[in-house]
């Protein structure tokens, strides 16, 4: 059961990357909120299954735990982009962005608008790496430093209501996903 959990976590890492690439790069223009949600369901389901198998199995040995740690960090990175974008699209659905926010029309059409919180994808990847590594290192207090630094860096942009809402949703989704991915490792250590 323990080995199955690690395999599922590794598959979540690879599948998250592949599905994200397919949705982001291959289907970007016509990718609907439903497409993003279905894409996000792949790594979420695999991580949930890995957690259940981890809880049902015996504690993992050191070598298997190291593989699980690497897989958890990669899963945090790859699945996070899917999860965050899907949640942002759900949050934006049906809203209209006003001219004062810099864009007009349906907000879901501009989820990855480069003018709203530029560099968000790259920052999110770095954030998930930092969160996953601080938890795995046994220093969960590091999350506060990561979030504090991110907040200070984004402070000037957060005066726009669209930016502040996206910042909160994106940050919480990103951090919770990283914690969930790393949480599988803790089910294997008990």
From TrEMBL:
State whether keyword Transmembrane applies: yes
UniProt entry keywords in alphabetical sequence: Membrane, Transmembrane, Transmembrane helix
Q: Which residues cross the membrane?
A: 6-23, 35-55, 67-88, 125-147, 167-188
**Which superkingdom does the taxonomy of this entry point to?**
Bacteria
This protein is called Uncharacterized protein
């Amino acid at each position: 059961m323990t080995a199955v959990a690690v395999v599922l976590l590794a598959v979540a890492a690879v599948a998250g990357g592949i599905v994200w690439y397919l949705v982001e790069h291959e289907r970007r223009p016509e990718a609907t909120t439903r497409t993003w949600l279905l894409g996000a369901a792949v790594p979420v389901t695999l991580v949930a299954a890995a957690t259940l198998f981890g809880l049902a199995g015996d504690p993992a040995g050191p070598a298997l735990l190291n593989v699980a740690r690497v897989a958890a960090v990669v899963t945090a990175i790859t699945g996070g982009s899917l999860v965050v974008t899907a949640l942002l699209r759900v949050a934006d659905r049906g809203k209209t962005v006003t001219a004062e926010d810099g864009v007009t029309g349906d907000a879901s059409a501009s989820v990855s608008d480069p003018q709203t919180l530029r560099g968000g994808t790259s920052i999110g990847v770095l954030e998930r790496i930092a969160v996953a590594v601080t938890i795995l290192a046994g220093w969960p207090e590091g999350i506060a430093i990561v979030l504090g630094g991110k907040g200070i860096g984004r402070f000037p942009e957060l005066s726009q209501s669209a930016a502040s809402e996206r910042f909160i949703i994106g940050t919480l989704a990103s951090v919770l996903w990283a914690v969930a991915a790393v949480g599988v490792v803790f089910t294997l250590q008990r």
